[in-house]
């Protein structure tokens, strides 16, 4: 099994629908993240969580919400999807013992299309 | 100015060639630097850290130039399997964890 598992892998949804992307990890890390990747814009941080009770907004959190259900689970919700949320979404965990930025493990990504 | 900038490429090089990429960062207080590799439609994966004194890992050499605020990645004896996008990652210590990913440089190694 993958260290970080994202579901679904691909999703097409309609404008205005609520959608949830799920992420689970077996690394045992406290830190988890949600990023989106768009061509030419790189990876941008949506939300991050350093433990179950700690959730923080990233640089582009508008239109998104998250839930940290357990150390191993971190889900991302789009309350009312809009077309410019079409992107590749990655969940990640990190182990800061090697230094911040080191040891990020990403899931395989969810390709979301909002029509 | 972007916090982290990379030439998007693509860099098209023949097998066996040596190729180098640079990545510039805007904040002189940046503390940690890394290179990640991302294959097409896949997730990024850590390639190597970048140390002040420079470091090697097989055919890959990473260097940091704090005075000019850039890091570099040198790949010797390029293989077809090196074809990927290489992301520069910079950590800046601040009010919250500030890890910035560059947009990546695409490398295509040609037979």
For the structure shown, list the relevant keywords.
heterodimer, A: 115 residues, mainly beta, seven-stranded mixed β-sheet, four-stranded antiparallel β-sheet, 11 strands, globular, B: 111 residues, six-stranded mixed β-sheet, five-stranded antiparallel β-sheet, 0% helix
Describe the structure.
The complex is a heterodimer of chains A (115) and B (111). Chain A has strands at residues 4-7, 10-13, 19-25, 31-38, 42-51, 54-57, 64-70, 73-78, 87-94, 104-106, 110-114. Chain A is mainly beta and 115 residues long. In chain A, strand 4 and strand 5 (42-51) form a beta hairpin. Chain B has strands at residues 4-6, 11-14, 19-25, 32-38, 44-50, 55-57, 60-65, 70-75, 84-92, 98-101, 105-110. Chain B is built from no helices and 11 strands. In chain B, the strands form 2 sheets. In chain B, strands 2, 4, 5, 9, 10 and 11 form a 6-stranded mixed beta sheet that branches. Chain A binds chain B through residues 35, 40-43, 45, 48, 50, 56, 88, 90, 98-104, 106-109, and chain B through 8, 31-34, 36, 41-46, 49, 87, 89-91, 93, 96-97, 99, 101-104.
Give the overall silhouette of chain A.
Answer: globular
Rg of Cα set of chain A: 13 Å
Unreliable parts of chain B = none
Helical stretch tally of chain A:
0
- Low-confidence blocks of residues of chain A: none
Order of helices and strands of chain A: EEEEEEEEEEE
Provide a count of the helices of chain B: 0
């Amino acid at each position: 099994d993958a260290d970080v598992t994202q579901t679904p892998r691909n999703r097409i949804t309609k404008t205005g629908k609520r959608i949830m992307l799920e992420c689970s990890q077996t690394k045992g890390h406290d830190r988890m993240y949600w990023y989106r990747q768009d061509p030419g814009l790189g990876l941008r941080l949506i939300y991050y969580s350093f433990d179950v009770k700690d959730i923080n907004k990233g640089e582009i959190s508008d239109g998104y919400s998250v839930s940290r259900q357990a150390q191993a689970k971190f889900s991302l919700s789009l309350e009312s999807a809009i077309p410019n949320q079409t992107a590749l979404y990655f969940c990640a965990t990190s182990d800061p013992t090697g230094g911040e930025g080191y040891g990020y493990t990403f899931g395989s990504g969810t390709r979301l299309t909002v029509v | 100015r972007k916090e982290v900038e990379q030439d998007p490429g693509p860099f098209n090089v023949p097998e066996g060639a040596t190729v180098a990429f640079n990545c510039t960062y805007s904040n002189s207080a940046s503390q940690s630097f890394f290179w990640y590799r991302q294959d097409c439609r896949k997730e990024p994966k850590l390639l190597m850290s970048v140390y002040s004194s420079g470091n090697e890992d097989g055919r890959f050499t990473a260097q940091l130039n704090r005075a000019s605020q850039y890091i570099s990645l040198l790949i010797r004896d390029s293989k077809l399997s090196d074809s990927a996008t290489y992301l520069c990652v910079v950590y800046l210590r601040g009010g919250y964890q500030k890890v910035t990913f560059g947009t990546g440089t695409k490398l295509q190694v040609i037979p």
